[in-house]
Amino acid sequence: QVQLVESGGGLVQPGGSLRLSCKASGTIFSINYMSWYRQAPGKQRELVATIHDSGITNYADSVKGRFTISRDNAKNTVSLQMISLSPEDTAVYYCAARPAGGPLNYQGSYSNWGQGTQVTVSS
Q1: pLDDT digits (tens, 9 = 90+) for 82-94
Q2: How many angstroms separate the CA atoms of 44 and 62, rounded?
Q3: Region for 65 from its dihedrals, namely left if φ exceeds 0, alpha if ψ lies in -120 to 50, beta otherwise
Q4: Is the per-residue pLDDT at 1 higher than 70?
Q5: Do 112 and 99 meet the contact criterion of CB atoms below 8 Å apart?
């Protein structure tokens, strides 16, 4: 049983940077994939980035080169470093854990979700 809590969201100007953090109350050592999703107003929730316990990462085309996902299993945390932010990045960002198999881009594959943290990019 893993509980996830996101933090680090806020208001940032276009071109700015933010670092989001996800703290797990339980260990994530046994969770092979941790992911970040986001949901913009009026849009579907979309997969932003994933990270395997091996360190291998994957990103949505819209954030490649701008976002970096990382994990620290010893501290039970997952982070998302975001740079060159634009208004299109405005959304609620969620971290999620996949304790079992299933497609990474399918929300049903994830059994644990954080409450979300708001990121607003505006001047």
Answers
A1: 999 999 999 999 9
A2: 15
A3: left
A4: no
A5: yes
